[in-house]
Design goal:
With about 350 residues, the chain is of the alpha/beta class. The chain folds into three domains: about 45 residues, no CATH class; about 130 residues, 3-Layer(aba) Sandwich (Rossmann fold); about 130 residues, Response regulator (Rossmann fold), CATH 3.40.50.2300. About 35% of the residues lie in helices and about 25% in strands. The strands form three sheets. Strands 5-4-6-7-8-14 form a six-stranded parallel beta sheet, with helices on both faces. Strands 10-9-11-12-13-15 form a six-stranded mixed beta sheet, with helices on both faces. α5 links the parallel β9 and β10. α4 packs across α5. It is elongated and about 60 Å long. About 40% of the residues are buried. The N terminus is likely disordered.
Length: about 350
């Protein structure tokens, strides 16, 4: 083999070397020898041509009982990522505050836009019933996320399926964790600021299904999201029911309120223990410090991402999961908080 170099051709300010292999007949030995020709080209400049942008194939909306909070912001980022990966619109709606009425009104207005799918929560399925059924009757696929219609399938809103934690199972898991790791409690207060929300009431119901048959009293306590008002509720409750030895906080903000109130009373981990639901920057230190003994993670990032993915698959090919897609429950305590805390509020 022979290598031949040609003089560089100037096409601009960058040098490009092209390698060409051509067969050349040589007289020697009467055979054919391959000659490699190396050509250097100088390029004046490189013009980047942007990739063609295709129109978005489908339009989806995520309309949950949202308010400004890291939990919902993370779900919004997950939906946005899924939309960008699939080249679909994936608008995620955040409301100024928790409002079932605003959520239902938004569903009604979006129905008129004829989207290719809506992912929504059902904190009050009865209130949303007529509006959501009208959307489904108009041909819009609906996926339930985070909070579902608790009624029997024959009576519930006919959405395609549910993505989220099974809150009855999650509540039962809390009760089992308390019993197996800490012994039998006397009285357990399940507390939150949205106890009318089906997700929170089902968490209590699931816990009660395990504890009440054992003769253990459970209560559903409304602890206001305002820390001052909420702390006063905890104080009054403990004064009226001093036998309460566990508080199970049904949301992340409640965990701060309850633990601070019990600390001020001198009873935190001194006769009264606390467990909770959800992770995040306000809960992680409570677990690390031992103020909250464990929490239940429902992996909300998946709740933002998966509905967009499944709505895409449904529109594209008619694909559906075999049943509801459960993202929880999972127990997080001191033994594994180090593993998951860096992803809380980001991807978990």
């Amino acid at each position: 083999m022979k290598t031949l170099f040609r003089k560089p051709r100037l096409v601009g300010g960058l040098i490009v070397t092209a390698l060409m292999v051509v067969p050349m007949a040589l007289a020697a030995c009467g055979g054919t020898e391959t000659v490699t020709v190396v050509e250097t080209v100088v390029v004046e400049k490189v013009v980047e041509v942007p990739a063609a942008t295709e129109p978005q194939e489908f339009q989806f909306y995520s309309v949950y009982h949202t308010f400004p909070h890291p939990f919902w912001a993370m779900m919004g980022r997950a939906a946005e990522l899924a939309g960008s990966q699939l080249n679909v619109g994936a608008d995620f709606h955040i409301f100024p505050e928790y409002s079932v009425e605003d959520q239902i009104n938004r569903i009604e207005s979006l129905t008129a836009k004829k989207p290719d799918g809506i992912a929504m929560s059902f904190p009050d399925a009865v209130a949303a019933d007529s509006v959501v059924r009208a959307a489904i009757d108009s041909g819009i696929p609906i996926v339930a996320v985070n909070a579902r219609d608790p009624r029997p399938k024959a009576d519930r809103i006919p959405y395609l399926f549910y993505v989220g934690s099974d809150e009855l199972i999650a509540g039962a898991r809390v009760a089992e964790e308390i019993l197996f790791k800490y012994g039998t409690p006397k009285r357990v207060a399940f507390a939150g600021s949205q106890i009318a929300n089906i997700a929170q009431s089902e968490r209590h119901k699931g816990g009660a299904s395990v504890l009440v048959p054992m003769g253990i009293t459970t209560d559903l306590v409304d602890v206001d999201k305002d820390p001052t008002v909420g702390s006063e509720t905890v104080r009054n409750w403990m004064a009226a029911h001093p036998e309460t030895d566990w508080w199970v906080c049904l949301e992340s903000l409640c965990q701060v309120t309850v633990t601070e109130a019990l600390k001020d009373m001198g009873t935190l981990n001194n006769g009264v223990r606390v467990a909770g639901f959800d992770l995040g920057e306000i809960v992680n230190p409570l677990i690390e410090g031992g103020d909250v003994l464990f929490t239940i993670d429902q992996q909300p990032y998946l709740q933002g991402y998966l509905p967009v993915l499944w709505l895409y698959l449904y529109n594209k090919a008619g694909f559906l999961p075999a049943g509801d897609v459960l993202t929880g429950p999972a127990v997080v305590d001191k033994s594994n908080i180090g593993l998951v805390k860096e992803l809380a509020d980001v991807y978990r």
